[in-house]
């Protein structure tokens, strides 16, 4: 869930012009098909050769599908830099309705903040401007456990990250900034979440083994607590802006949010339990048999499925239906007792209006919709001391290409621009950057440049064009049309980068007294002289 100072990833994949259409700008999320499977490692070298693989392998959804529902979308959304999401529709709906929602992301203080981190800073700040409760955290426990940094190093980088976050527009009076090590509520929540996770799960998700130290594993649970922390006061849609390499954290946090719930709510058709795909088949049989106007019994549904679904999935549900025999098939919602107290379970039984059937571990309600049941379950849980967590949402941005081509790497200073770089140094790095230009000016004018493969054009898209889509489109079209040559394009980008760094660093200086007044220990009490 944290962005740290490490290799940033592969070039932005070749795709249709992200900015050729007037607006909104779209992306196909694509690259060359047939690449190897993607491995998402939160602590490894971030590299995604084919963003479409993330949709296929991990169930990440295309952001284009939810973009029309987002009020006043950020330019990173419009340009396809934010390419994927999990359940962001809930956050967009909260924005549209002026309902409570939150945004949180974290930063591992292992080096200077750079222009890749600026994307995440901007995403937090934009959500705050849209009315969200905003949280920016310093993942110092993770930096110490997973990277082995000393507390002196961590403190130095912590100050730097926070100054840039404030300089870019984060409002500390309307949001919260904290360090993992200084937030007791997060640590207490991590302890509770740890009871719902186990080593086998960490081994499967992260590849941990017998050599993995306990502090590293504990830092994962702390990140889960970070992700759910905005919901401690009340459940609300919460978005976590991250790179796709952090998706394993998001998936685990969504699972833990569900496991911490007192009740699970599902659909059901009989007294026995069934899987989602089995319920689809039962519903089909029920709808078909109900057309005759007679009551449907489990044995009847089994006969129907035996005729229409003679496959493995059908066989499993047919066996369950046959065992239930003459029991009626009736749609209902089911409240499963996941981890409720006895008092909470009794209160739920009392709260269910209309016809209901009570079993040892669940309650079936026949007069409630699924949404009504979800709301009721959460209300009872909150009234009896539970958390009522909503599964957190996420958005994913593309990795930036290194200025020298290939990966942006902290070990290659020329490949990236730090937010602390001297403005003149930033100017020179852009001037020396690799481009997507042709071999000669003549060929460039004849064939046009390859903007989709150009790190300098990325700078315009991700940063230098700001909110001005017209300017970014102009740069693209002039490049691919052969009007814009690389020398002049890099000169313009270098000037804009110099101006940005000078302005940002001036604002950082103004934020120093603001940071000193915040309720956060920039120097950790864990630090030793």
Sequence-ordered SSE layout with sheet pairings:
Blueprint: E1 2-3, H1 52-58, E2 61-62, H2 75-78, E3 82-86, H3 89-97, E4 102-107, H4 115-129, E5 133-138, H5 140-146, H6 151-167, E6 175-179, H7 184-194, H8 199-206, H9 214-228, E7 238-242, H10 247-259, E8 263-268, H11 276-290, H12 298-308, H13 312-324, E9 332-337, H14 342-351, E10 356-358, E11 362-365, H15 370-383, E12 393-397, H16 423-431, H17 441-447, H18 455-464, H19 469-480, H20 486-517
Parallel strand pairs: 1-4, 4-5, 4-7, 5-6, 7-12
Antiparallel strand pairs: 2-3, 3-12, 8-9, 9-11, 10-11
Helix pairs in contact: 5-9, 6-20, 7-9, 9-10, 11-12, 11-13, 12-13, 14-15, 16-20, 18-20
Description of the structure:
45% of the residues lie in helices and 10% in strands. With 529 residues, the protein is of the alpha/beta class. The protein is built from 20 helices and 12 strands. Helix 5 packs antiparallel against helix 9, helix 9 packs across helix 10 and helix 11 packs across helix 13. Strands 1, 2, 3, 4, 5, 6, 7 and 12 form an 8-stranded mixed beta sheet that branches. About 7% of the residues have low confidence.
Tell me the fraction of residues in β-strands, as a range: 5-15%
Overall strand count = 12
Q: Classify the secondary structure makeup into a structural class.
A: alpha/beta
First-residue to last-residue Cα separation: 31 Å
Any key phrases for this structure?
529 residues; alpha/beta; 8-stranded mixed sheet; 4-stranded antiparallel sheet; 20 helices
